[in-house]
UniProtKB/TrEMBL annotation:
Positions of the Integrin beta subunit VWA domain: 37-498
InterPro entries: EGF_extracell, EGF_integrin_1, EGF_integrin_2, Integrin_beta_N, Integrin_bsu, Integrin_bsu_cyt_dom, Integrin_bsu_tail, Integrin_bsu_tail_dom_sf
Species of provenance: Ceutorhynchus assimilis (cabbage seed weevil)
Example GO BP: heterophilic cell-cell adhesion via plasma membrane cell adhesion molecules
GO MF annotations in UniProt: integrin binding; metal ion binding
Name of the protein in its database record: Integrin beta
Subcellular location: Cell membrane
Family: Belongs to the integrin beta chain family.
Length: 844
């Protein structure tokens, strides 16, 4: 029966386990529960980690936003690691506002004043007056100009969670412009040079209309002075052509300066040179013009334009090999004191990407002003260089001023946002541009901006994946408008790791005892050293290769083959029993034991704590208690009748079991009552006492000899003589009736007093019947029989006599009636016949 109960309980428990797994299956969509480490957990959106060392729940990684079922253990607040995205703004200077009513100097383009460019005097005068104006301070120009806000923020982001920041861009009024004119001075460009020298002051004048803070610089290039680009014959080296100077790679003529008058002079003074092949060494020149910041004089805060004008294509990385130059371009500045590129004959041309990088880094807008025959090549090139644009130059560069103006207008009236984040971070730009009522569009470009317009960008930043290297998790990201040396710098920290996974934390312990000394305790879990495994690193690899994975988890004689009795998980050949809350414990090598499935008494396990405890299906009783459910009191005190001193246990008619009487039950006697004191069906002892009562009371019976009576009746108390014997029911008195050999009746009762002593009360005198005369009766009866017989005989005689006489009388009468005489035979018939005539009416 015990076994059956256990089986039933076990099967119930198994069902319960199956049921308990159902919610887990439901939460299969919950991305958190499958995450085994704090890192993985917090790299999953909406998950939080519990590093409570005492935590006993099933999954440490949980969704704090989802309420747990009440059964599940809740993680304590102080042990929950759920980092938030944090943004703090470090620098947020206000955007520079446009000066309202700032006159014609602003964004309005108008080319007037055409006749005055050639008057060099007036040029000088203008330059001076402009310088003066600049010194006196012109509105915002004296201050630090801010076109991007905020400027620096600190961001802590969790992986795979998009975070939005907002950024404003405005085009400041009167923003400084640096323009460096880089010119191909090979022989074919001589007419262009002439034209440019003539147009120089017009260019300056035009630009000054755009911005009062304008500088102009000039440089030129030919090609590497190496065969096959340039003829290296001595005479050709000195004078490659008529009116030519010796060839050179790149020559920086004039640093960026507000003195625009000097520009024309410098252009005029520059002499053309000659080379052999068609493509020119323009890339060398671009690289030097871009990277030689100090020599060129690029200002920190200015729109930087590099106008590259040529009528030929270009050499690029690899072409240097033709001239035996194998050393790649290092992208650094190598300008001599005289302004020549000193590494021209030693380093190869830069690649397009090198140019792009340098241009990007220095926020320079390259404008390729090229003649029609090469424009296609440069259009392709411009696609690969950030912020570059191409414009068609007339053969003699006569349209250079409009070209630059248009390009500048294009550049400054649009904004394009860029960033330099690595691939681990995704950055997306959304903006309405100038359409306040419009929808947010996923774009980083806006056009048609006028001075003073503010463009707002919404920037979604998302850490796509956590880099493996810890140092890669800190990134400085720049978000900048192309061509402007202003940016929003984001110091990004990716929250990829928990503090408790780093050495030095309170919850980080190497070779921790909690991990059997074979692993590192991190954030509440063990990370095992190589060769060890198991939840607490309790298994070692050598040990387990001997056993198959689950062999230790199935009991050897199991018929079901159920691992860990279905109430635990098999971990390296050992069972780890599931936990069932604080009150229920499952244990045993195969989780076959528990402390909640034992026999119950009145609904209490093992009759309650005070009686015993449950251990693996059996109750372990406390001293003083026994029985399968510890409900039995071992003391026999309760089996003694309370009002009998020195009485027998269970009145001598039963045994004491669990502190209670179990009464004897035999065929002829059934005892009952709390102390087995009652027996309604018991045979009485009347017979037993009869002889003694007889001899003691009446000196009769088989023991009537005085000796026999005294010897054989010692057990029987001397009866108390009473007149009339009556049994008193309450005292359990027994009434006995007998008739002795004298036909006398006698009656007595016996009973036990409260001390179980036998007492007998007997009738003082027997009731005897009166004497009867037996012989008289006998003779009387005999006489009666004889008399009756005789009477019957007489009666018979009388009757027959009467009958005879009647017959005789009848005979006599008949005889007397006979007609014929005596002697006449009645049967005699005469021999004669007589007939009567019927018609004869005579006497018959
Ligand atoms: C040249 O500029 C002066 C003022 O600087 C102006 O008076 C004159 O008319 C201009 N000449 C022409 C041809 O426009
Ligand atoms: C021009 O701009 C620079 C900053 O790029 C500034 O330092 C300088 O004062 C400005 N000059 C004038 C004349 O506004
Ligand atoms: C350019 O050539 C002219 C004569 O043709 C000469 O006077 C001048 O010095 C040369 N300039 C340079 C920079 O060599
Ligand atoms: C851009 O401006 C910052 C200061 O605002 C300066 O440190 C940096 O050198 C500038 N970069 C370039 C390429 O001019
Ligand atoms: C972006 O540019 C800034 C400034 O040049 C630099 O410090 C940062 O490391 C760059 N970021 C990346 C991801 O390359
Ligand atoms: C602004 O956006 C709205 C809605 O997208 C559109 O209807 C409207 O034409 C846009 N206006 C301009 C000037 O683009
Ligand atoms: C397993 O079964 C074998 C015989 O089949 C028996 O000798 C052994 O005692 C059993 N072991 C257990 C733990 O029941
Ligand atoms: C079962 O064991 C657990 C842990 O030892 C204990 O807290 C609990 O009280 C026990 N339950 C019963 C019913 O004895
Ligand atoms: C009386 O007791 C004696 C001895 O105990 C025994 O021998 C005898 O038979 C008894 N008498 C009767 C009538 O039972």
């Amino acid at each position: 029966m015990h076994h059956a109960t256990k089986c039933l309980l076990l099967s119930l428990l198994t069902t319960a386990t199956v049921l308990a797994q159902v919610p887990q299956r439901f939460t299969a969509q919950n991305p958190c529960t499958s995450k085994g480490t704090c890192q993985e957990c917090i790299q999953t959106p909406s998950c939080a980690w519990c590093y409570d060392p005492q935590f006993t729940g099933s999954a440490r990684c949980f969704q704090p936003s989802f309420p747990l079922s009440s059964k599940e253990e809740q993680c304590k607040e102080e042990f929950t690691h759920n980092p938030d995205n944090i943004m703090s703004v470090l620098s947020n200077l206000e955007l520079t506002k446009a000066i309202s009513g700032g006159g014609s100097g602003g964004g309005h383009w108008s080319i007037g004043y055409e006749g005055n460019w050639s008057q060099t005097d007036s040029w000088e005068h203008q330059g001076a007056s402009m310088a003066g104006e600049g010194a006196s301070g012109h509105g915002s120009s004296g201050h630090h100009i801010v076109q991007v806000a905020p400027q620096r923020i600190n961001l802590k982001l969790r992986a795979r969670q998009s975070y939005s920041i907002f950024m404003g861009y405005t085009q400041a009024e009167d923003y400084p412009v640096d323009l460096y004119y880089l010119m191909d001075l090979s022989k074919s460009m001589s007419d262009d040079k002439e034209k440019l020298s003539l147009l120089g002051d017009q260019l300056a004048y035009t630009m000054q209309k755009v911005t009062s803070n304008f500088t102009l610089g000039f440089g030129s290039f030919v090609d590497k002075v190496v065969m096959p680009y340039v003829s290296t014959l001595q005479e050709k080296l000195e004078r490659p052509c008529d009116m030519c100077v010796a060839p050179y790679g790149f020559h920086h003529h004039m640093s960026l300066s507000t003195n625009t008058y000097m520009f024309s002079r410098m252009v005029k003074n520059a002499n053309v040179s000659g080379n052999l092949d068609a493509p020119e060494g323009g890339f060398d020149a671009i690289m030097q013009a871009v990277v030689c910041r100090n020599q060129i004089g690029w200002r920190q805060q200015a729109r930087r334009l590099l106008v590259f004008s040529t009528d030929a294509s270009f050499h690029y990385a690899g072409d240097g090999k033709l001239g035996g130059i194998v050393k790649p371009n290092d992208g650094r500045c190598h300008l001599s004191h005289e302004g020549y590129y000193s590494q021209s004959s030693y380093q190869d041309y830069p690649s397009i990407e090198q140019i792009n990088l340098a241009v990007k880094k220095n926020s320079i807008n390259v404008i390729f002003a090229v003649t029609g025959n090469t424009i296609r090549v440069y259009e392709q090139l411009a696609k690969h260089i950030e912020g570059a644009s191409v414009a068609k130059l007339e053969r003699d560069s006569s349209n250079i001023v409009e070209l630059i103006k248009e390009q500048y207008e294009q550049i400054s009236s649009s904004v394009q946002m860029k960033h330099n984040a690595s691939s681990a971070v995704s950055i997306r730009f959304f903006t309405r541009c100038l359409n306040e009522s419009g929808a947010l569009v996923n774009t980083n470009k806006c056009g048609n901006i006028k001075v003073g317009d503010v463009i707002n960008f919404k920037i979604d930043i998302e850490v796509l994946k956590c880099p493996k290297e810890r140092r890669d998790r800190f990134q400085t990201i720049q978000i900048y408008p192309v061509g402007i040396n202003e940016s929003l710098t984001i110091d990004l920290e990716m929250l990829c790791e928990c503090d408790c996974e780093k050495p030095g934390d309170k919850y980080y312990l190497e070779n921790a005892p909690a991990c059997h000394g074979a692993g590192t305790y991190k954030c509440g879990i063990c990370v095992c050293n190589p060769g060890a495994f198991g939840r607490h690193c309790e298994c070692s690899a050598d040990e387990v290769t001997k056993l198959s994975k689950t062999v230790g988890c199935v009991p050897p004689n199991s018929t079901t083959g159920l691992e860990c009795s279905g109430r635990g998980t098999c971990i390296c050949g050992r069972c780890e029993c599931e936990s069932r809350g604080p009150l229920e414990r499952i244990y045993g090598d195969h989780c076959e034991c528990d402390n909640f499935s034992c026999e119950r008494h009145m609904g209490e396990l093992c009759s309650g704590e005070t009686h015993g405890t449950c251990d693996c299906g059996t109750c372990r009783c406390k001293p003083g208690w026994s029985g399968p459910n510890c409900a039995c009191e071992e003391s026999e005190a309760g089996c003694y009748p309370p009002d009998v001193i020195g009485g027998e246990i269970c009145s001598g008619h039963g045994s004491c079991v669990c502190g209670q009487c179990q009464c004897e039950n035999t065929k002829e006697s059934r005892y009952s009552g709390k102390f087995c004191e009652k027996c309604p069906t018991c045979p009485d002892r009347c017979l037993e006492f009869r002889d003694c009562v007889q001899c003691q009371m009446y000196l009769t019976g088989p023991l009537k000899e005085p000796n026999d009576c005294s010897v054989n009746c010692t057990n029987v108390p001397v009866p108390i003589a009473v007149d009339k014997v009556e049994a008193i029911e309450e005292n359990n008195e027994y009434l006995c009736h007998y008739t002795d050999e004298d036909h006398c009746q006698f009656t007595y009762v016996y009973y036990y007093d409260s001390e179980r002593k036998l007492h007998i009360r007997a009738q003082e005198k027997r009731t005897c019947p009166p004497e009867i005369f037996v012989l008289g009766i006998v003779f009387g009866v005999i006489a009666a029989i004889v008399l009756i017989g005789m009477a019957i005989l007489l009666l018979w005689k009388l009757l027959t006599t009467i009958h005879d006489r009647r017959e005789f009388a009848k005979f006599e009468k008949e005889r007397m009636m006979a007609k014929w005489d005596t002697g006449e035979n009645p049967i005699y018939k005469q021999a004669t016949s007589t007939f009567k005539n019927p018609t004869y009416a005579g006497k018959g």
